[in-house]
Amino acid sequence: MNVRRFGALTGRAPHATDTSFLAALYLATRPDLGVLPVPRSVIEGIARHQQQLQVEEYTQRYPAAETWLLTDGNEALGRVVLDWASDTLRVVDLAVAPHVRRHGVARTVLGALQDACRGQRTMALRVRCENTAARALYAACGFAIVQDDGATLELAWR
Questions:
Q1: How far is CA 127 from CA 22, 131, 148, in A?
Q2: Which long-range contacts does 142-145 make (Cβ < 8 Å, 24+ apart)?
Q3: Are the C-beta atoms of residues 71 and 25 closer than 8 Å to each other?
Q4: Quick one: CA torsion of 25, 28, 32, 37, rounded to 10 degrees?
Q5: Can you give the pTM of this predicted structure?
Q6: SS3 call for 144
Q7: pLDDT in the model for residue 17
Q8: CB contact at 8 A, 152 and 134
Q9: Each residue of 78-128: pLDDT tens digit?
Q10: Per residue in 35-55, pLDDT tens?
Q11: Phi, psi of 77, rounded to the nearest 5 degrees
């Protein structure tokens, strides 16, 4: 499958031409790197390396996962990684570009996934405890905390 609908949004497989967008998106999800007292080029190098490690980890932990670049038909808006391999849909990663955060992108994606899962499977995801905006979104979408390890929360929707 080359294209997937997420409500009004389209998901497609990332292309080589999306590398710059995906690198910037990863860096935007890592505000901790922005406070390092080093030149921006060093931060970008660290982010590229950590992004590659993330891709390798996802591939190892979720070999059947699907990665979708989220678009509105024209512009790249984010990325979602999904693992449908069990009776629970795992949202491995959901990242939205800073300029469209709080514009309904993540809510649209989650709503479409909930529609696909309703009555058939649960959904699960992890979120960092300090990510209050994402936590509020997930709570509003009906996700409940099932585990708290102090750094991250495991959430489920049934």
A1: 20, 7, 10
A2: 142/114
A3: no
A4: 100
A5: 0.92
A6: strand
A7: 95
A8: no
A9: 999 999 988 999 999 999 999 999 999 999 999 999 999 999 999 999 999
A10: 888 898 898 899 899 999 999
A11: -115, -25
Distance between CA 156 and CA 127 in Å, rounded? Answer: 11
Q: How confident is the model at residue 1 (pLDDT cuts 50, 70, 90)?
A: low
- State the number of CA atoms in the 13 A half-sphere of 148 facing the CB: 6
**Helix, strand, coil: what percent of the chain each, to 5?**
40, 30, 30
Question: Is 39 strand, coil or helix?
Answer: coil
Q: Read off φ and ψ for residue 65, nearest 5 degrees.
A: -65, 150
Distance CA 71, CA 78 (A): 7
Are 140 and 111 in contact by the 8 Å Cβ rule? The answer is: no
Which position has the token pair 């932990």? 61
38 exposed, middle or buried (CB, 10 Å; 0-12, 13-18, 19+)? exposed
Dist CA 38 CA 50 (whole Å): 16
Q: What angle do CA 83, 88, 89 make, to 5 degrees?
A: 35
